[in-house]
Predict the 3D structure of the following.
Amino acid sequence: MTEPAIRHHQLIITLYGLYCRGAGQAMPVSVLIDMLGDLGYDHSGVRSAVSRLKAKGVLKSVKDGNVAKYELSSTVADLFLEGDERIFSAEPTNATDGWVLAIFSVPEALRNRRHQLRTVLSGFGFGSMTSGVWVAPASALERTKERLRTLRLDQFVDFFKGDHVADGDLPAKVAQWWHLASLDEQFAEFLDLYAGDVVKWTAKVGADPQRAVAESTAELRRDAFRCYIPMLTIWRRFPYKDPGLAPEYLPKDWKGQEARATFLEIHRLLAPLAAAHARALMT
């Protein structure tokens, strides 16, 4: 299967999230050009993407002597910390945890805030039951409240926790509240792309990725980087689409858990090698 097109700025965000996140850490554009060059991207596209990310407030420029460098803005860096837990988590939701309802009302004059609110709720796993009433696994509550407070959207929302006590087929209703069939197709596409890499890279790396780094060649580290960075960039979208429902509410033969297991194993195998390649370019 052909790998889907990934834009320059998506890869740049992945690279900063992995290798250049801490306070005071900055990266020259020349290093980004080298990194994306290894992934098959042209230098002019890198420069244009950096300019757009700077204009959006994702990156900010800093001076290091005569070298222009860029670092993550503090607000974006905080979002990365929250994202780590979701991107690298292996734990499914437990059905006994119950549900959380978000009930909101936004004045028509503030319709842009209504759109922003819906975007936040959707990104934290909420599905729409009806206009102004959204539902999610209870585990989504605290991180959703925190994000809404940060964006000053919490004034428009009331939350309630509880269990589903009505009669009827809850999995059928769940399928109406979330677009699970479309998401399952995307998980299947991810598996088509990367399931075979688990066997391939296990044969190359063995059981101990850290030992593999010590014994690796520059070519192997570069190949790992070429596989790992696009794979992570594709995967990191899924936690913001997947509501994290308990298995009993999901369609038969749901591919989400297999896709997550595949991602986590490739991450375990390749992250140390890819990081070693990145460090060599950054020094």
User: Anything to note?
Assistant: The longest strand covers residues 59-64. The CA atoms of residues 221 and 273 lie 5 Å apart. The chain is about 55% helix and 10% strand. Strands lie at 27-28, 59-64, 67-72, 99-104, 127-130, 133-137, 157-162.
